[in-house]
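Quick one, probably user error.
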């Protein structure tokens, strides 16, 4: 067990000290907002730490909120690592793009990376360590490949390199690109999309931990204004365009990258992520890739047996 793992709490403690942890979150975080040149509000949540020894930027997954990290924040606080979670347009309390605020929509995928970099600039954050989840992993790869304000190291958890879908790639691409371009269809939910509705733990494919899963959805039930539903066709099309750009590009990694993919992921494709990172094994800085066996997609809300060791190793990679 590395030194970081010792500061993680287990599920039993989470259940026992839930009220204490909720109060910790209230007392030790602050919400920030910024207006960009498109008059959109971009938001972030900062974990305040007195005399921090390290700092961390977090790009969350699609539809995630700062409160989702409250247990992880407690660990970071005890490790004296300050953190900032940044939300691009359409996410959490940042400006939504459509009048129907439940729909997860973007016009250009590049806008998400630009939003993150805009907030980093406003906060005077330049040389930083990055931890990203799911969609945040795809945004991070866009930043690393195409932006000037890049991290010095990045740990990507279950990055959205390609969707998990039981269709041949050429059929999936053709369907998504056609639907994502057609007027009136482009802003419709995809077949699996709908307004946010509380998920049941039994049969879910996001996390094995009932306590963490239900805490997350309990909070959403009380804060519906920051809940978000499924993606639109155009959102998926734009994400796929970015994925194909990254997959087909001959760029090389020149910063240290560590990817953890989930062995039982049914949200994003772990085989595609493995293929992508192995393609870069001869880069100037070859990325490190690891599969967490039997883990579901949502590592932050996973059971102790998956989340503690994995997140501790991500922190060790970033800071040691």
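Nope, works fine. Designed sequence:
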């Amino acid at each position: 067990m590395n030194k970081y793992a010792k500061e993680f709490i287990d599920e039993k403690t989470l259940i026992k000290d839930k009220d204490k942890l909720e109060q910790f979150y209230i007392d030790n975080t602050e919400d920030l907002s910024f207006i960009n040149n498109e008059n959109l509000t971009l938001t972030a949540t900062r974990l305040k730490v007195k005399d921090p020894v390290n700092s961390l930027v977090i790009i969350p997954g699609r539809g995630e909120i700062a409160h989702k990290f409250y247990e992880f924040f407690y660990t970071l606080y005890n490790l004296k690592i300050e953190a900032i979670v940044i939300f691009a347009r359409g996410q959490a309390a940042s400006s939504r793009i459509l009048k129907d605020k439940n729909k997860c929509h973007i016009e250009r995928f590049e806008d998400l990376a630009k939003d993150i970099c805009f907030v980093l600039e406003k906060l005077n954050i330049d040389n930083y360590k990055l931890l990203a989840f799911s969609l945040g992993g795809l945004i991070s790869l866009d930043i690393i490949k195409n932006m000037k304000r890049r991290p010095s190291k990045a740990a990507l958890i279950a990055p959205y390199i390609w969707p998990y879908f039981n269709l041949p790639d050429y059929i999936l691409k053709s369907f998504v690109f056609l639907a994502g371009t057609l007027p009136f269809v482009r802003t419709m939910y995809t077949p699996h999309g709908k307004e946010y509705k509380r998920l049941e733990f039994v049969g879910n494919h996001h996390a094995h931990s009932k306590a963490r899963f239900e805490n997350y959805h309990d909070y959403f039930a009380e804060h519906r204004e920051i809940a978000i539903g499924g993606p639109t066709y155009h959102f998926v099309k734009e994400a796929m365009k970015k994925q194909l750009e990254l997959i087909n590009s001959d760029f090389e990694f020149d910063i240290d990258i560590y990817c953890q993919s989930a062995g039982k992921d049914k949200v994003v494709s772990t085989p595609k992520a493995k293929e992508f990172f192995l393609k870069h094994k001869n880069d100037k800085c070859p990325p490190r890739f690891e599969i967490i066996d039997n883990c579901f997609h949502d590592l932050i809300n996973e059971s102790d047996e998956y989340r503690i060791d994995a997140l501790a190793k991500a922190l060790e990679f970033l800071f040691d």
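The chain is about 35% helix and 15% strand.
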